[in-house]
Amino acid sequence: MVSEKLGAAEVTELLLTAEIYNKSEKLNEDDLPSRIRKHYFDPLVKGVKRPIYVTVADVQQIYGIDNVKSIVKGLPFVDLEEFGSQLRLTVFELGAKWLANQNELEKINSNPVLAFFYENYNSLNVSYEEAKKVNKPLSADREWINSKINELCNDAKQAEDLLKLVHIKAPEDVRDSLETLVLTGEQISEIKKIGKALENRSYLRDVGLYEIGKLLFVGPPGTGKTSAARAISKWFSLPLIEVRLSMITSQYLGETSKNIDKVFDLAKSLCPCILFVDEFDFVAKTRTADDHGALKRAVNTLLKAIDEISLVEDGVLLLAATNHPQLLDYAAWRRFDKILNFPLPDLEMRQTILEKVLSKIETNVNMHELAKLTEGYSGSDLRLIIREGVLNALLEDRRKIDQDDLLRSIQDFGRRVSDYRRSFAA
Ligand SMILES: Nc1ncnc2c1ncn2[C@@H]1O[C@H](COP(=O)(O)OP(=O)(O)OP(=O)(O)O)[C@@H](O)[C@H]1O
Ligand SMILES: [Mg+2]
Questions:
Q1: Average pLDDT for residues 306-325, to the nearest whole number?
Q2: DSSP 40-92
Q3: What is the pTM of this model?
Q4: Matching CATH number, 347-425, of 1.20.120.530, 3.40.190.10, 2.60.120.10, 1.10.8.60
């Protein structure tokens, strides 16, 4: 439970936020801190309607505070209307001054609505721009994305069919993050360029540069392609629509072309967002298979839709990934303006991956030596090595991992890989 002193700051934060938001047309949903926004989100308007009213129940639900009424008694500038349990600021300036004196700068600097107000308040060190940077925008919220899906589909059945083709993730639900991935210089610079392109869409449109925003990730299995696409969604707070190409072969083939069009409509309505086509080589496989007319039609619909979508005009960033680039023909390649390589990690990258994965685990290991012994291993292989090492240690009731644990799992892993290769050679 939140202590009374802390609770007072929360109540005041909410009341001030509501009042500033209600009065200023310059502010929109992106300025509300996400937990306040989620609470007041109205799926009908796909946003937060003005005015926001604050009740005792709102405070309880947003902050998990139970003793709201007793907290309010200690705040001379808050009035509790017993009927309806609505809370109001009696004198706005008093509340504003009280919060400014509470040593709650962190709260203000992570709430753009408050930062907007306090930026020019006395000598408080507050920046609206900085607060906006740390606050998640509306597009990161699951609630907003769901309301968009419902808007696009006439009924639950349609939504269900659509969701068989795509998996939609809200940035707030994505687990992968750029911080945990070890990226090459080229990958980092390409991600920065994506950020710049997103910020400068209207400039790029004005100068007529449309060949931006379609990237194909190419590299061996386990080199971070899927994780990177998801992490980019989280980093830029862009909803992620993952297309499952293998679902195209489902029994609903007749409906598929229609559904593909719908996926692209959805992408446009969620814009800016990421449309991620994983295992893109599936396209090539269906082209060489000669039966399945409907399947080919579906894939052609997909390729045509890819041609027509644009980051600059529609705000849709298209990412695709493959570990079989040799299967793709020129027609597929030419649809991308950038091929981004995901190579097997070199010595230095392997060492950094090991360090990152082991960072929360107690160890006594020589990472450099391990990195030297794992030439040709992917990031995913390195994770598996550590998994084995940790589980083997747990079998012996140990939580500290030493060099031998990992050397042993490298040896086992090497054996597993060579057995696997032999089974193919036979
Ligand atoms: N460079 C890396 N840094 C940190 N972790 C990595 C890296 N590469 C891969 N991993 C980890 O390995 C696991 C598998 O990665 P991921 O699924 O993204 O690979 P992929 O390239 O999509 O593989 P596939 O081609 O088989 O689909 C993930 O947990 C990911 O975080
Ligand atoms: Mg993948």
A1: 93
A2: H-BTTTTB-PSSPPEEHHHHHHHH--S-HHHHHHT-TTEEEETGGGEEEESSH
A3: 0.85
A4: 1.10.8.60
